[in-house]
């Protein structure tokens, strides 16, 4: 990990009218670090993630991102075009529902290839070969390359969404309940796959999850949210093995269903 943060988050709040989405969230994220955001339903996890990924504009607060040239840029001051460029190249966003992150009516190969074209690849043969390699990496048989994702199972769609997001070597990937809609056995394999890719590629990841087991398996650090606030944060093993806040203790002892 480098000695300079990739993301500086300061005082991010989002209100929906008078309702709190999330409030006064501050943290740093380092390159290669995996941060889990956990908390019960309605605690503000998705709101925060969407603010960080600039899919939502916060009501107040500031997020700075370290560009590849080393300069910090304020995400909320960027033009829409600059933000779209970041999303296409430097970032990934893995949706809980793969249909939200895939184009369901173009082929699997095109879903992956499209991201390569967005970063300037023009050679059809190379794009197809890279797409095919990535399908293999996410355990989709290469002879399915011309099939549309609507012909895939839920687990395959999620793996395809992951390939589409990782093919351009992003530096930061946002994930909202990436295993949420899947059977338990499919979840376990997908998590293993994600864990391997994240460590091989040295990605920084912010992952929202209900599931403390997902946080345990994937993340270095975690933040616990309640009522829109971060009530506890720290190294994942510390938070799960020795939670300080009573609410986190309840979560960990599974008395609360999240
Ligand atoms: N578009 C919206 N308009 C109004 N209120 C919203 C909107 N989106 C979220 N909220 C409110 O913001 C709060 C946080 O919601 P959010 O979706 O961020 O929670 P979450 O932790 O992701 O929950 P879940 O685990 O159920 O996905 C909730 O009170 C919710 O009702
Ligand atoms: Mg959510």
From TrEMBL:
InterPro entries: AAA+_ATPase, ABC_transporter-like_ATP-bd, ABC_transporter-like_CS, P-loop_NTPase, PhnK. Keywords: ATP-binding, Lyase, Nucleotide-binding. The keyword Nucleotide-binding applies. Transmembrane segments: none annotated. One of its GO terms (molecular function) is lyase activity. Residues 7-252 form the ABC transporter domain. The keyword ATP-binding applies. Belongs to the ABC transporter superfamily. This is Phosphonate C-P lyase system protein PhnK. It comes from Rhizobium lemnae. The gene is phnK.
């Amino acid at each position: 990990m480098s000695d300079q943060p990739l993301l500086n988050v300061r005082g991010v709040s989002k209100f929906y009218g008078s309702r709190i989405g999330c409030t006064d969230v501050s943290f740093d994220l380092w390159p290669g670090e995996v941060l889990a955001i956990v908390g019960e339903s309605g605690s503000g996890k998705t709101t925060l993630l969407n603010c960080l990924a600039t899919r939502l504009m916060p009501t107040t607060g500031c997020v700075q991102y370290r560009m590849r040239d080393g300069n910090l840029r304020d995400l909320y001051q960027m033009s829409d075009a600059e933000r779209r460029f970041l999303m296409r190249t430097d970032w990934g966003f893995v949706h809980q529902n793969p249909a939200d992150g895939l184009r369901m009516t173009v082929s699997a190969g095109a879903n992956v290839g499209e991201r390569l074209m967005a970063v300037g690849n023009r050679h059809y043969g190379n794009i197809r070969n890279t797409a095919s390699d990535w399908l293999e990496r996410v355990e989709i048989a290469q002879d399915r390359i011309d099939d549309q994702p609507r012909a895939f199972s839920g687990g395959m769609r999620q793996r395809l969404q992951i390939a589409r997001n990782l093919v351009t070597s992003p530096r930061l990937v946002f994930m909202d309940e990436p295993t949420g809609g899947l059977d338990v056995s499919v979840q376990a394999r997908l998590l293993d796959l994600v864990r391997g890719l994240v460590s091989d590629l040295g990605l920084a990841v912010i992952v929202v999850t209900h599931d403390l087991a997902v946080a345990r398996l994937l993340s270095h650090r975690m933040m616990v949210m309640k009522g829109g606030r971060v009530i506890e944060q720290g190294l994942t093993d510390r938070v799960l093995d020795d939670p300080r806040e009573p609410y986190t203790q309840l979560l960990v002892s599974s008395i609360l269903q999240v």
